[in-house]
Eclosion hormone
Amino acid sequence: MNCKPLILCTFVAVAMCLVHFGNALPAISHYTHKRFDSMGGIDFIQVCLNNCVQCKTMLGDYFQGQTCALSCLKFKGKAIPDCEDIASIAPFLNALE
């Protein structure tokens, strides 16, 4: 029995499903702005929130994690913090005494 046609048919079916459902919007009905990079499948808000958590873990009390997370939501992930770039996290730093 030759399995090549079956494998090819399965591959085509999976590819068609990915193309059809790949650009699906999140389950937030009121969301109107671009949240995803449809070509790369990147969710900018989620990346922003994950970076806030990472910075809070790295910097502890020196970093305002909640303020960072709120800015991710407010600006829809357009300004993603980078824990190693002081300019991108400066608004969220505390000066502990």
Summary: Residues 22-33 have pLDDT under 50 and may be disordered. Helices lie at 4-21, 44-59, 65-74, 86-89. Strands lie at 36-37, 42-43.
